[in-house]
């Protein structure tokens, strides 16, 4: 009972409903396109209540990455996954060190800034060749960003933006799976992930499961470029609102 009170005592039931709707939409977007969960979910969940980020949202995203990795396992390239995964783990370790000097309870402006940086990275359109340095470097950047904000995707999207959609979805999902495990470990080591975050993450699972099923059965993106721009607009607007959110 004490754990439940600590996790949900300050939340209104309406906030849980809204949070699940956000997770539903974000899950559907990522299941259909391969990326977008964090860019949509993190800033909007933070606007609902900062207790949902980054731990509980990363907990939910771990299951999404697992489902998508399993679905695309036949096109995963291990020679790419290993160096990117190593970079992610190294970046997460650095992020854990940075968390020692930060207070997540007052991190709304930091979350907003990292999200805007992620949007800017997504808009650059840079093409990165698959060299060992780039694979490890992109993974490291994604690892640091993930621990600080829960968002890993934009650097990975740059890396795989010219790959076949099926391969891109599977590779990004498999890297996300590694990244989310590393992020949870980093958050736990810094005291920001425990029973409370697990309970909040479980409370968001209905939205995740419904969003995944709907996306797999019904969602077809007919104009991916326009859809991607819409996701970035939502993320940028939410990030700006988050930066000016009253404590």
Describe the structure.
This protein has 247 residues and is mostly helical. It has one domain (12-243). It is built from twelve helices and no strands. It has helices at residues 2-8, 13-33, 37-48, 55-71, 78-99, 108-124, 132-149, 153-160, 165-189, 195-203, 205-218, 224-243. The protein is globular.
Low-pLDDT parts are none
State the total count of DSSP E strands.
Answer: 0
Name the shape in a single word: globular
Number of helices: 12
Task: Give the helix level as a range of percent.
Answer: over 70%
SSE order: HHHHHHHHHHHH
Overall pLDDT score: 85
Largest sheet: none
Helix and strand composition category: mainly alpha
Distance between the termini: 28 Å
What Rg do the Cα atoms give? 17 Å
Give the strand content: under 5%
- Total domains, how many? 1
Topology:
Layout: H1 2-8, H2 13-33, H3 37-48, H4 55-71, H5 78-99, H6 108-124, H7 132-149, H8 153-160, H9 165-189, H10 195-203, H11 205-218, H12 224-243
Helix pairs in contact: 1-10, 2-3, 2-11, 3-6, 3-12, 4-9, 4-10, 5-7, 5-9, 6-8, 6-12, 7-8, 7-9, 8-9
